[in-house]
Predict the 3D structure of the following.
Amino acid sequence: MRSSSFKSSVSVTHISTATAILTIDDVNFLLDPAFGNHGDFQQRDGVLLTKTDDPALGLEDLPVIDAVLLSHEDHVDNLDTSGRTMLNGRHVFTTLDGAKNLAPRPGVRGLAPWESTTVTLNGKQFKITGTPTQHLPGGECTGFVLESPSFGVNEADGLPNVVYVSGDTVHIPQLANELPKRYHVVVALMNLGKAIAPLPTGPLQITMDGAQGAQLTRDIGAEKMVPLHFESWKHFTESVEDARAELAADANIKDKVVWVVPGVKTVIV
């Protein structure tokens, strides 16, 4: 049930992969800034990843950015050289390891799972909480829950209304079980694509596919779900057509899914 106490507007502008602008009222959050054009990108661990498309917007097209939500800083499809310029002089929320690696930038704050901090951006107060993920073994990655006084409390369950950003993760019990106990999710942004990492032990799925995204949307009771991170890289193994089909096949959530057009600001609620 839509909470009438949620008094904010939420819009999403998808740029490329996980890179997007999440606009809440007059505050712009930039998610996982990566603005490089198509080509090969070498990661810190030596792995070469291939990007197949250019971003829908360039750095010069961005509005004023109030804060950056960075799921992890060690993968080039979430943060590349061009995107790193957006971290300087801004509030940045990321993992604990990421905060150390990005030092000495004073605006960077690392969050452990379920750890929270508060910040005032453009006159609006937010509580930002890190959420668990399961991504590449040995590395840190985080999702985010955003709260604000204007979001209110859901009348049906008495839980705080929130916006959830998954970061890079597969479906895990910690999210399915804990998020609906703690929060009423009004908008969920979920990273899909079924990214596969070629490990010595064999291929490992490290982001959700459409079926897992549908399952997590059901599990957490999200009112609206916005798919991200489903195109532009060769290590993504599920096409956008297959993801659309899987989400549309789930009668419980198909009307909750909002597909956004790259480069176009789309009102979600």
User: Anything to note?
Assistant: The helical segments are 81-84, 96-102, 173-182, 210-220, 240-248. The chain has one domain: 10-267. DSSP finds five helices and 17 strands in the chain. The domain at 10-267 is CATH 3.60.15.10 (Metallo-beta-lactamase; Chain A).
